[in-house]
Design brief:
CATH topology: Thiol Ester Dehydrase, Chain A
Structural class: alpha+beta
Strand order of the largest sheet: 1-2-4-5-6-3
Keywords: Hydrolase
Pfam family, one: 4HBT
GO molecular function: fatty acyl-CoA hydrolase activity
Oligomer: single chain
Number of strands: 6
Family: Belongs to the thioesterase PaaI family.
Largest sheet: 6 strands, antiparallel
Distance between the termini: 56 Å
Number of domains: 1
Helix content: 10-25%
C-alpha cells in the first residue's frame, strides 16, 4: 500500500479580505498548493498538476463519463469551465493586491470532441493584455498528443475589491 495518500482538496470561497490582501499571482498559487480552498466549481473538473506564472496558468484534468451530454460525448460545459477558469486565473495572476476581475464575455471554439477515453487534457490560459479596467486572455485545451480540442478568448472587467464596512 502507498504510504503517501493524495492530499485532500478543500473546496470553499476565500474571504474577500484575504483575497484583497494578496497579489494575484500569490492568490492563484495559494489555491493551487492548497493553502487556500479550491473554488467549488473545480469539484466538477478536478484539476491537477496546476502551475501559475505571471500571465500563464496551466492545469490538467481527465474528462469522464459523468461529464457526458445526452448524445454520448463530453458536454461543452466541461470545456467551457476549463477554458474560463484558465483565462480568468491567468488574468488574476497579473493583478496587484486589492484588485479583482470578472468575466464580461468569452467565446469558445470546439475543435475535437472529448470522451471518457480521451485521457488527460491540458488547459493553458494566457493573458493578452491587462489594463486598469479591462483584461483580455486566451486559452487552449489539448490532449496528450498535443492536438487542439478547444480554444477560447475572453474580456474581463478589472476592478478594485470592495472591503470593509459601507461608508468607510
Amino acid at each position: 500500500m502507498d504510504d503517501q495518500a493524495a492530499p485532500k482538496i478543500e473546496y470553499g470561497v476565500t474571504p474577500t479580505e484575504v483575497m484583497a490582501s494578496m497579489a494575484g499571482l500569490d492568490f492563484v498559487r495559494s489555491i493551487f498548493d492548497g493553502r487556500l480552498p479550491s473554488p467549488p466549481i473545480m469539484q466538477t473538473v478536478e484539476p491537477f498538476d496546476s502551475t501559475a506564472e505571471p500571465g500563464v496558468v496551466v492545469f490538467h484534468s481527465i474528462p469522464a463519463f459523468r461529464h457526458y451530454n445526452p448524445i454520448g460525448s463530453v458536454h461543452g460545459g466541461y470545456a467551457a469551465t476549463l477554458l474560463d477558469s484558465a483565462m480568468g486565473l491567468a488574468v488574476h495572476s497579473m493583478l496587484p493586491p486589492g484588485t479583482g476581475y470578472t468575466t464580461l464575455e468569452f467565446k469558445i471554439s470546439f475543435v475535437r470532441g472529448m470522451t471518457k477515453d480521451t485521457g488527460v487534457v491540458r488547459s493553458e490560459g494566457r493573458i493578452l493584455n491587462v489594463g486598469r479596467r479591462a483584461a483580455t486572455a486566451e486559452a487552449r485545451i489539448t490532449d496528450s498528443k498535443g492536438r487542439l480540442l478547444a480554444h477560447a478568448t475572453t474580456t474581463c472587467l478589472v476592478f478594485e475589491i470592495p472591503t470593509g464596512a459601507a461608508g468607510t
